[in-house]
Design brief:
The protein is α/β, with parallel strands linked by helices. It has five helices and seven strands. The chain has one domain: Maf protein (Alpha-Beta Complex), CATH 3.90.950.10. Helix 3 packs across helix 4.
Length: about 200
């Protein structure tokens, strides 16, 4: 990877994304973007998740005092391909909702859409935006509510899309994961990120 001359900022309050970015061995700081994540009317899931990642990057650019920076942001949504592919499933925020989301996924094929945005920010208006959406398909097995309650109690996946924490006990609910690249399912696709960073100044 080329030596980066601008400071790197992770536009996320996620500890998992922090840990994933740390794997690249690059110094970075963190700024929480704090945006409205509500979907637009009839907005397709892939467009929604990409828009949110871009909005996070733009919001961080508004908040920082640096004249230039490389801002990394991401978002994740999932859809149930076995039921309604147009309906997104986000963070549960409560244990009750987490249990409900996982039960909805039972014996179903889901697709997690992870968006990534790298904003090579320059306040002169010359900044470049690199972004993409990486899909990951997950096939859930048939399971019972008792199993789900235990997973939620141990994983506490309240901030995970669909209440699925792939690095935790949630993986025991799966039959198969078709992952395109490492890190995507956890919220930060590292191969695509490394490619984008090589294109930054």
């Amino acid at each position: 990877m080329n030596k980066l001359t601008k400071p790197i900022i992770l536009g996320s309050s996620s500890q998992t994304r922090f840990d994933l970015l740390s794997r690249l061995g690059l110094p970075f700081s963190v700024v929480s973007p704090d945006i409205d994540e509500s979907p637009l009317p009839d907005e397709p899931p892939q467009e929604l998740v990409l828009r949110l990642a871009r909005q996070k990057a733009y919001r961080v650019a508004e908040k920082i005092s640096q004249s230039s920076a490389i801002i990394i942001s991401s978002d994740e949504l999932l859809v149930n391909l076995s039921k309604d592919p147009s309906k997104t499933m986000g963070k549960p925020n409560t244990k009750e909702r987490a249990i409900s989301q996982l039960m909805e996924s039972r014996d179903c094929l889901l697709c997690f859409y992870t968006s990534l945005c790298v904003y090579d920010y320059d306040n002169s208006g010359e900044g470049a935006l690199h972004s993409d959406v990486i899909p990951t398909k997950v096939k859930f097995r048939d399971f019972c509510k008792t199993e789900v309650k235990r997973v939620v109690e141990i994983d506490n996946p309240l901030s995970c899309a669909g209440a699925f924490r792939s690095e935790g006990l949630s993986v025991s609910l799966c039959e198969q994961i078709s992952e395109q690249e490492p890190g995507a399912l956890m919220g930060l696709p590292l191969i695509t990120l490394s490619h984008f960073l090589r294109n930054c100044q």
